Amino acid sequence: MEYADLEQLYIISNRKINEVDTTFHRYLYPQINWSNRLIGVKGNGGVGKTTLILQHIKETFTDRSKVLYVRLDNMWFKTHDLMDLVEYHYTHGGTHVFLDEVHHLRHWASYIKSMYDDYNDLHVVYTGSSMLDITQHEADLGRRQRVYTLNGMSFREFLNFEGLNVGEAVTLEELLNNHSQLASDICRNKKILPLFSQYLRHGCYPFYKEEGDGFFDRLHGVVLHILENELPQVEDISYTTIEKIKRMLMILAERVPMMPKMAELYRELETNRENGNRMLALLGKAGLLAFFAHEVINLNSLNKPDKIYLYNPNLMYCLSTHVDMGTLRETFFYDQLRNVSEVLLPKKGDFMVNREYLFEVGGKGKNFEQIKDEPNSFLAVDDIEIGQFNRIPLWMFGFLY
What we know:
Arc Repressor Mutant, subunit A, globular, Rossmann fold, five-stranded parallel sheet, five-stranded mixed sheet
């Protein structure tokens, strides 16, 4: 292969690296051990995987000839082989390859295994859809790679992205023990509640800043891209089934968090229980639905969950015709907590966290009536800036990552 065959890829790589903004980093950036030879970054569409790896390249490599960034949905790969590109890059002094959106490449795991095994000092970083089933390839890649998951932006990250400099994340224990002082420090010279309302509408995805009034159109496009493009790339699935999955998502978006009678739903979708459960699980893997039960749910063997939420508050505003405030609060709490803790459905109250802390979520008038006399019980209360004792502002649970 001659340089002329791939010159355009190097031009695009350098342009993307030069253009990326490095003033704000997602929470995952400092957690990644970039010295590992094989790194995978999974995440939902639009959460910032591409930006994260481009920032690392820009801030790390002064010699750009050592590094190559490529998106695997580039049309170049329709007539060229990825391994020919890697061979050229490596034999001409390249040390690092960054492969964006690997789910666009058939047999992606085999390619990555070959890169790792055949080039002893080549570093490979790849990003992919949240639907990538890494466990399926553990025999080939598990002992070689380190896989990270990038979640949607937390409320803390949103505030930092807005330039408010609210500092680092806190642990759940720090929050429970010291929330009044933490809230007082954060709220000094800031009106936090209007910002929290903004976050619930559009703050989970960093692209809200560039889209402005077009945010929900962009988010709707992300949802369609996941279902129409990413899903068939990682699953053997028909067009008819994809259309049924879309319909299932929109039906459930209007009913969350209450579980419909699944048999009736599956009849409405003209499918059986086995296929219906599979479609439901795929919506979970796609980062569009979140499931909630008395015990930990395995999406690879999903049965009927006790509750279903849309994956984050922004999706509620995007997909639902009516946003119920009680459901919105619970969706936010579950979204923030499940990223750092084990969250289960308790017999009393709304959420059991790490099998130790019991939470009830509600508005300003919420009291302890439903969980009185329960040990380690707390209220997560909306519409207050600062709490006291076991009554904690709901927005503060957005500071856990």
